[in-house]
């Protein structure tokens, strides 16, 4: 009898442990309504997500966005731009666990290494030629060259980057599996606003090493 009680206790603890792992590894919470467009009038309420609009006021325009129609401003140090459409800017995305982005990269432009702590990102090359890569938790680099129509995935939370490898402006669209993926930039964290020389050095390393598959991230970013 005592052994059966111990066994049931162990099974119960194991079940709780597995359930906790599943909860910790889950993405955005599932939606409890069919739709829940962001209520922009209550932006000072801080919850895990955004408040919903009154269902009586929901319209088709809540599920439409033109944020990604136009190219972003690439007149900057990196010659690139990233435009995001999250639930904060695109109400219809609220509770759906999705966001989207547009990346524009001029010739010789670079999107510096960064990570999205809450989302996996899948990119689609609309125009141009792009080299994209990411660094895994073993500090190994996975990099590939993508032509128009190519698709590549950046796993959740991993450092990734891309740069224009062609002779014309590149346009990239992406989908992320979180309504608020977050953005952690290595250039801002490591170099700040005055690290121009270090940024140039990193950009040149990314572009000059050719095939980086299997290369240690230490070779790129230092110790």
From TrEMBL:
<feature type="binding site">
    <location>
        <position position="160"/>
    </location>
    <ligand>
        <name>Mn(2+)</name>
    </ligand>
</feature>
<keyword id="KW-1015">Disulfide bond</keyword>
<dbReference type="Pfam" id="PF00190">
    <property type="entry name" value="Cupin_1"/>
</dbReference>
<dbReference type="GO" id="GO:0030145">
    <property type="term" value="F:manganese ion binding"/>
</dbReference>
<feature type="binding site">
    <location>
        <position position="121"/>
    </location>
    <ligand>
        <name>oxalate</name>
    </ligand>
</feature>
<keyword id="KW-0732">Signal</keyword>
<feature type="domain" description="Cupin type-1">
    <location>
        <begin position="75"/>
        <end position="199"/>
    </location>
</feature>
<dbReference type="InterPro" id="IPR014710">
    <property type="entry name" value="RmlC-like_jellyroll"/>
</dbReference>
<comment type="similarity">
    <text>Belongs to the germin family.</text>
</comment>
<keyword id="KW-0464">Manganese</keyword>
<feature type="binding site">
    <location>
        <position position="116"/>
    </location>
    <ligand>
        <name>oxalate</name>
    </ligand>
</feature>
<feature type="binding site">
    <location>
        <position position="116"/>
    </location>
    <ligand>
        <name>Mn(2+)</name>
    </ligand>
</feature>
<comment type="subunit">
    <text>Monomer. In the absence of manganese, it forms tetrameric and pentameric forms which show superoxide dismutase activity.</text>
</comment>
<comment type="function">
    <text>May interact with bacterial adhesins thereby protecting the reproductive tissues from microbial attack. Has no oxalate oxidase activity.</text>
</comment>
<dbReference type="GO" id="GO:0009506">
    <property type="term" value="C:plasmodesma"/>
</dbReference>
<feature type="binding site">
    <location>
        <position position="121"/>
    </location>
    <ligand>
        <name>Mn(2+)</name>
    </ligand>
</feature>
<dbReference type="InterPro" id="IPR019780">
    <property type="entry name" value="Germin_Mn-BS"/>
</dbReference>
<dbReference type="GO" id="GO:2000280">
    <property type="term" value="P:regulation of root development"/>
</dbReference>
<dbReference type="GO" id="GO:0004784">
    <property type="term" value="F:superoxide dismutase activity"/>
</dbReference>
<dbReference type="InterPro" id="IPR011051">
    <property type="entry name" value="RmlC_Cupin_sf"/>
</dbReference>
<dbReference type="GO" id="GO:0048046">
    <property type="term" value="C:apoplast"/>
</dbReference>
<dbReference type="InterPro" id="IPR006045">
    <property type="entry name" value="Cupin_1"/>
</dbReference>
<feature type="binding site">
    <location>
        <position position="114"/>
    </location>
    <ligand>
        <name>Mn(2+)</name>
    </ligand>
</feature>
<keyword id="KW-0052">Apoplast</keyword>
<feature type="disulfide bond">
    <location>
        <begin position="36"/>
        <end position="52"/>
    </location>
</feature>
<dbReference type="InterPro" id="IPR001929">
    <property type="entry name" value="Germin"/>
</dbReference>
<keyword id="KW-0964">Secreted</keyword>
<dbReference type="GO" id="GO:0010497">
    <property type="term" value="P:plasmodesmata-mediated intercellular transport"/>
</dbReference>
<protein>
    <recommendedName>
        <fullName>Germin-like protein</fullName>
    </recommendedName>
</protein>
<keyword id="KW-0479">Metal-binding</keyword>
<feature type="signal peptide">
    <location>
        <begin position="1"/>
        <end position="26"/>
    </location>
</feature>
